[in-house]
Amino acid sequence: MTDPENKHPSGAPWRNFYGRFRGKTLRKSQEEFLENDLAQLSPGAVGWDENPDREPLDIAARFPGKRELWVEIGFGGGEHLVHMAARNPEVAIIGCEPFINGVAMLLGKIREAGTDNIAVHPGDARDLFDVLEPGSVSKAFLNYPDPWPKKRHHRRRFVTAEHLEPLFSVMAPGSEFRVATDIPDYVRQTLIEAPRAGFVWTAEGPDDWRRPWGDWCSTRYEQKALREGRVPHYLTFLRP
After folding, report:
1. I need a labelling partner for 194 at 20 to 30 A (CA). Which of 57, 158, 177, 183 fits?
2. What is the pLDDT of residues 78-101, one digit of tens each?
3. Which of the residues 3, 124, 146, 182 is marked catalytic?
4. What structural domains does the chain harbor?
5. Is 146 a known active-site residue?
């Protein structure tokens, strides 16, 4: 875990972040989505500048009438997130994604789908975990995360204690954590690190990780993996 005494002058703990924040030039329509839609889709005061005391978000006020809170970590282009939101209108879903091009893609999909139960945190998921009430999340998704294939970079993967322990703390007893990946070594590391953080793998046989979930929406990353001959794995964990 990050040392709480090792802090930025703003009060934020020093947290290494690995990955891109921005890619190729955004289209004008995407810039317009970011300018006009992103602020109103905020889950609340997540950033350290706006919430230095790390007051918990009032999810009930942000999403009145929603019976559960779900979180998607690194939503990519947003197709799975929007699919799940449209399929489950009674649930509130917060998507975390620091890559602004992916955020712009999601905003366009939200406009097209007309969903009203999504909030977007365009940043590090750990900052969101800081301000969620313990035990408030009923389901979490980690779909095709950055594989960081080089061995020396494996500590950069999401499936490390630095990320999994705070995720575990915000998840409710009996809640579900889903991981989809096409990288065998990512599967190996997940099956080691997730139980160390307290999660329990639910598989009882090969079909439990070979077959996607019944409500699964195949993403563009999965389609690329299939075209290139890689095999998807679908791992389901419970928070006891």
Report:
1. 57
2. 999 999 999 999 999 999 999 889
3. 146
4. 28-238 (3.40.50.150)
5. yes
